[in-house]
Amino acid sequence: MSRHRGEAVVSVVVPAHNEAAVIGRLLAGLLADARPGELDVLVVANGCSDETERVAASHGPGVRVLSTPDANKFRAMRLADSVAESFPRFYVDADVELDTSAVREMAAALREPGILAAGPERAQLPKGVPWTVRWYYDIWHRLPVVRDGLFGRGVVGVSREGHAQLRDLPEMMGDDLAAALAFTRAQQRVVAKAQVVVHPPRTLRNLLRIRERALVSTEQMARAGLFPEAGVAARTTRADLLAVVRPAPLRTAHKAAWFVTVTVLVRRRAARRLSASDFQTWQRDDSSRQPKAAA
pLDDT (tens digit, 9 = 90+) per residue, 44-63? Predict the structure, then answer.
């Protein structure tokens, strides 16, 4: 796609594996207020057996659709990198909601000297999330490492220099955590004026699945020696929980107890995979991709 010199173009890469039910929601928000040629959106349909390609293509010439039979998010992003032309560049999960203004705010931050990576603030949880999931996230969102880290937002943006730091990272399950750990605190920014809606699991079972995936991916990085501090950075300490509970114990103590319960269950589930060094099985949550998922 040819561009005129000096034109402020932003590349948005959306890896999508069987996301026909939700990708239209994302693309509609991304393009709603975009000026012609402002965004170069690349949807990489990887290993899809549904209508992901058709739905993405229906959003017009502002969306380029790439296709590969390989159902692999990491390789899908690298495929997009081989044809994307512009920076800042954003990697966006197909199941989140992000609008044009949020992309602009993050792109502006990435054009500031020294800022190599950026992400949006998380919006409040959508309605209809059962207490078994909501209580967990009520605590998780308050943890310092979660508040400040770029992971778990479904969006990571990089400048050209930031992209160069990520380019040589090997294939990892936790791509967003790897991106967050690749930069110092001074090199990354959570942009307050940009918001993303992250749709959480609608069942406890699916919450356990995605938290298991997060724990396994963290251990994968530690074992590979890429980010030896990954396990420490992602671990919730007793001091972290006390800092969350102390200001309002009557409203948060029971939620913290539930958070600990879920964490113990996740560690037990993950132990089996870690003992087998299973770093390939992708635990996917389909409940959040349904229009009306049962609680």
Answer: 999 999 999 999 999 999 99
